[in-house]
């Protein structure tokens, strides 16, 4: 836990302390040796995720500063620097995307849930038209009012749109008020760029606050996670807490394999040959780098930080062959999700890289759903 405290010290936490308390459950008898091994894995993962969140808080500040510089100057070079800061922050967050439990998870249905993930990144819920409407209304001018807006017009998704979309057109249909009453057309090119810059600053500043709240809340939650199965923890058994971490790893199946790869490639939930409009990033073409970061996040959750991970549990059970097979399939998936071509280019031409990445992910997730889950007696 000392590593979490050091990570916290690296970030000037400006948010108010956020409580992460949960109903405490009565401990359930477990084999003490097996339970401690599971808790060791939870400590390792808790430290690693805490450091990841702390890094994101640093990246969010850099994004806010770069956005402010661009907003002040309007220079194309400064916009490019803000875009690069967004890519850096987005890469860190895509690694953290898997861990949708604890304070990042939904309130009321996850232990310690505070809904902080959606405030940071709301995909697949997004609404570019609504952002354009808020640009006309200048809702970004009041930080408190901005923070009260729906999550689909804040966060990393919103920053992507205002940084990367440069066309004078908006994303609303002609019947929407901003088009019907001429308020959008009343914005000349200079005013539109000014407002987009100010919106980026407001959204990035809101990100900083959410990131700080997440860092603070995770430090408390990680201690509860590491104490699973003991008196005072909201987890009655260490297995239940480990299962929470295991569930998080399945992000690479439901969200990455199926939604980020399968849907755009026309493999699932697509009525045509390909569905490029269903890709994760519509403005930045950051799709494959984000997926690769998701797999790096998976590896972090699977292997843990400086301590043991799921791979160590497998080898302790004599499952070296299975652990080796997972290593091979993970490496293959990581290689397949780092192609030379962008996803936009692939979907408009040879979709082989997208289909190949989907197939490589399926090899890995099929293994998780069968042998892995059975050997470790998880759900």
Q: Which helices and strands, and how do they pair?
A:
Elements: H1 2-9, H2 32-73, H3 76-96, H4 116-120, H5 128-137, H6 143-147, H7 155-164, H8 177-180, H9 189-226, H10 238-249, H11 251-262, H12 287-303, H13 310-316, H14 320-336, H15 343-347, H16 352-375
In short:
With 379 residues, the chain is mostly helical.
What does the model show?
By secondary structure, the protein is mainly α. Helices cover 63% and strands 0% of the residues. The protein is built from 16 helices and no strands.
List its traits.
mainly alpha; 16 helices; 379 residues
Mean pLDDT: 93
- Oligomer state equals single chain
Strand residue content:
under 5%
Structural class: mainly alpha
Please tally the β strands and state the result.
Answer: 0
Number of distinct helices:
16
Distance between the termini: 27 Å
Order of helices and strands: HHHHHHHHHHHHHHHH
The stretches of 5 or more residues where confidence is low (pLDDT under 50) are: 1-22
What shape does the CA trace take?
Answer: globular
Q: If you compute it from the alpha carbons, what radius of gyration comes out, rounded to the nearest whole angstrom?
A: 22 Å
Largest sheet: none
Q: What fraction, in percent, of the residue positions are helical?
A: 55-70%
């Amino acid at each position: 836990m000392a590593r979490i405290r050091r990570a916290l010290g690296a970030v000037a936490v400006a948010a108010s302390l956020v409580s992460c308390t949960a109903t405490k459950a009565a401990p359930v008898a477990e084999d003490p040796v097996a339970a401690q091994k599971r808790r060791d894995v939870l400590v390792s993962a808790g430290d690693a995720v805490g450091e990841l969140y702390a890094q994101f808080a640093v990246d969010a500040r850099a994004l806010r500063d770069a956005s402010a510089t661009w907003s002040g100057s309007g220079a194309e070079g400064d916009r490019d620097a803000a875009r690069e800061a967004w890519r850096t922050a987005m890469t860190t967050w895509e690694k953290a995307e898997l861990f949708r439990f604890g304070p990042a998870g939904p309130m009321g249905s996850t232990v310690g849930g505070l809904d902080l993930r959606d405030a940071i990144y709301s995909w697949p819920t997004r609404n570019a038209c609504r952002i354009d409407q808020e640009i006309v209304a200048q809702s970004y001018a009041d930080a408190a009012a901005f923070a009260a807006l729906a999550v689909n017009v804040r966060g990393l998704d919103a920053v992507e749109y205002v940084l990367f979309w440069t066309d004078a057109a908006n994303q609303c249909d002609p019947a929407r008020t901003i088009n019907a009453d001429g308020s959008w057309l009343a914005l000349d090119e200079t005013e539109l760029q000014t407002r987009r810059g100010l919106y980026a600053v407001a959204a990035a500043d809101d990100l900083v606050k959410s990131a700080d709240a997440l860092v603070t809340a995770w430090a408390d939650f990680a201690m509860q996670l590491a104490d699973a199965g003991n008196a005072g923890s909201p987890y009655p058994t260490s297995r239940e807490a480990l299962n929470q971490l295991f569930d998080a790893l399945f992000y690479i199946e439901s969200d990455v394999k199926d939604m980020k790869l399968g849907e755009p490639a026309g493999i699932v939930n697509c009525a045509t040959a390909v569905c490029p409009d269903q890709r994760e990033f519509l403005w930045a073409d950051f799709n494959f780098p984000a997926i690769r970061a998701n797999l790096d996040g998976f590896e972090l959750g699977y292997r843990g930080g400086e301590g043991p991970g799921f791979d160590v549990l497998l080898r302790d059970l004599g499952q070296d062959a299975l652990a080796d097979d997972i290593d091979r399939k993970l490496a293959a998936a990581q290689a397949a999700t780092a192609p030379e071509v962008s996803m936009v280019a692939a979907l408009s031409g040879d979709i082989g890289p997208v289909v190949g990445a989907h197939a490589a992910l399926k090899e890995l997730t099929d293994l998780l759903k069968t042998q892995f889950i059975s050997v470790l007696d998880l759900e």
